[in-house]
Amino acid sequence: MTGPVIRGRSHPVRRFFTINRTVLSADDLAGDLRRTTLPGGLRVVSESLSHTAAFNLGFFVGVGSRRESRALHGASHMLEHVLFKGTPRLSAEEISASIEGVGGDLNAYTAKEHTCFYARLLAEDADRAVAVMSDMLAHSLIEPQHFSSERTVVLEEIAMGNDDPGDVAHDLSAQRLYGPSGLAKPVIGSVESIRAMDRDAVVEYWLAQYRADDIVVSASGAVDHDRLLEQLAPLDLALSRRRAPATAADEEAAAVPEPGLVVQTRDFEQLEAVMSWPGLALLDPRRAILDVLVTVLGGGMSARLFVEVREKRGLTYSIDASEIAYSDAGQVSIEWACAPERLQQIVDVVREVLDDVLAHGITANELAQAKGQIRGQTLLGLESPSAHMSRNGRTVLQDDPRTVGEMLAAVEAVTLEDVHTLTRELFSAEPTLAVVGPWDEDRQVSLG
Amino acid sequence: MTGPVIRGRSHPVRRFFTINRTVLSADDLAGDLRRTTLPGGLRVVSESLSHTAAFNLGFFVGVGSRRESRALHGASHMLEHVLFKGTPRLSAEEISASIEGVGGDLNAYTAKEHTCFYARLLAEDADRAVAVMSDMLAHSLIEPQHFSSERTVVLEEIAMGNDDPGDVAHDLSAQRLYGPSGLAKPVIGSVESIRAMDRDAVVEYWLAQYRADDIVVSASGAVDHDRLLEQLAPLDLALSRRRAPATAADEEAAAVPEPGLVVQTRDFEQLEAVMSWPGLALLDPRRAILDVLVTVLGGGMSARLFVEVREKRGLTYSIDASEIAYSDAGQVSIEWACAPERLQQIVDVVREVLDDVLAHGITANELAQAKGQIRGQTLLGLESPSAHMSRNGRTVLQDDPRTVGEMLAAVEAVTLEDVHTLTRELFSAEPTLAVVGPWDEDRQVSLG
């Protein structure tokens, strides 16, 4: 059915604009990258960028919800919270005030395979970020009364997530795509696991998991690598004394995707829908192809799904396609929110779009457009100094050797045939459709 | 009750860190600013910044929901949508594809007093952004079938907002703080006004409101001011032919704040609460003082409210204070989400914090901390080239003559007495408390 994104004329854009392209590459935006492994195993990567007054610092720890036992479900995230609650040298308020009082930000997040603590401040205040964050990671007190008040905070955070249709739909999707593996569980834990969580067990988990050899420190901006190494030496020493538990981790159950519809009925006005298929693992070289495919399908307002579902039919405010990748698994998703009575109609349009790509692939015009989009977005993204910190921290932790330039070259090399082959591999399977919102028991949905 | 943010020792932070402060000022981050008014009245401001490959462009139109009659409630936002739907030269897909195909972003938002269309792309593609956006603003077709499909999209957007507890609570607050003035209405309109909205009336509204003399074009990054002027000349000419309606706008009713509790019962897990007081207008010189006050109360994890409500008592995931300013009015708000049974306890703690500041003012330590925080955040914010575009566009449209350096100097000059005086002026009044979520009819809340 659907034609190319730019219809009618062959090069309408070129006729209307003056094209004045100079060649900017990823190298133009790269800084001076240095990487050192300290004696205790702490890996330090820094990228010194000129023309920024900011210092960005991140501690990437290789532990997330995936590694948790049933009793410790949510422990990685709980730890992320309680490590802000004070050390022998600094109270919780002093930790925040030391960074915020100079206009900086200090924050953290927990994912399924890693936890990250990060700060951004003026370079003139770099030393305090390194000192405070090292102190938190190695010397937190995790006092019982703080643990207990943070337990209530996390229960509030769970309630907040339950009021967010997108969060709930993504958790439902993960349960169906990754069950019964460790990737199926929500990062935050459950009301039951958080209520029952034992402070001493979390402290033990911290001592076992926050080890020098499983942490990457990444800095970017106005950075002095040698000074950073010097300042991190005590942390490296402290965390190198920690040892992984002698017993090997339990063998993890394999993911068994369970396609079909899964519904959580909630009293919202809209239905939130996430349609997913198994995707590609983090280091799979075909992710460059997947990037192109996802961009063509749902990478913005000119993408096929947006044009067909919103622009032509006005069925939803927005519809996106995206991919998520973990070390050994991934997912591709299409998501939107809509009035309940429009669900089947949108599913049918999505199905038509996918069937068209399955049968005919994408067009040469779409391929060129997607490559331009990925190149421009990547280069614009690298303008932010904090993006370098974040990318370097994650790629070093994940043993991903590819530079941005190599990734862009891989995208540039993608062919129409590559995209067609991958489309058939991923989208021939029956999807999971996770739906959250008002639901009539009699409602039937055909996934085509 | 509450002490200063940094407790116990007088300078704990200084003892733990090496302080190595050089003096960075707003001027260090400013670019080459140029401003021109074209013959038709279009104002053009550009800030050329070195060391960025990006071009940021925004069209700031001085029309928002405040100016709308009852029948046109939501027309400014509806216009923002339909101006993306095509011109004689470009279809909707071509508009999006022209910017997205080179990795750029093209988007827009509508506020109560202005509407903004903005793009960010690589400087090598600057020309196409100026061409496409000028075409949209002056020559959109707004075809009836596109208007009608966009009507459905906006109704979906209203439903999405109704599922967002924060959006609903803010709309309730505004109704109570600004009723019956034009600021009381939600920007998006109502289901009734959108369903009934007439395409021809919206086109007429567009022709009357999008005039050269009420639009500011702001560009930042890798900008060539003279080339920009040349490219904008046709837009200036086209929009200068448009004339404001001969009849003056209706006299707007004055805002009459109505304090006390207002509840919208919804089947969420948490209650969303927004407590508000009338604040300061946009150009009120006391906004520098208010900035300090809001920072001390709720500007982060070291702020009084966060420390008292979350750190010490674990009652909520987060609590913030903020201010909003319009041309002739403003509001100060404190907001949080919590389990329904904790509402009264949190209101009581907020009341205690405010009573303490009303009685004793803030501490010298808090004042210094807040100044450092505002300075650092402002300077870090200016590192983003798009922030310059956005700030320049808004300040020129609002006739705000202050530079960032002047604003920071005003903050630096704030005294303890200034803060105490303003606290008494703003917080002696009874607040409005807007609450959205599960609600038991018998529940009583005392605002102290």
From TrEMBL, chains A, B:
Highest taxon of the lineage: Bacteria
Domain spans labelled Peptidase M16 N-terminal: 43-188
InterPro entries the UniProt entry points to: Metalloenz_LuxS/M16, MPP/UQCRC_Complex, Pept_M16_N, Peptidase_M16_C
A GO molecular-function descriptor: metal ion binding
Name of the protein in its database record: Insulinase family protein
Chain ranges of the Peptidase M16 C-terminal domain: 197-373
Family: Belongs to the peptidase M16 family.
Any Pfam family: Peptidase_M16
Lineage: Bacteria, Bacillati, Actinomycetota, Actinomycetes, Propionibacteriales
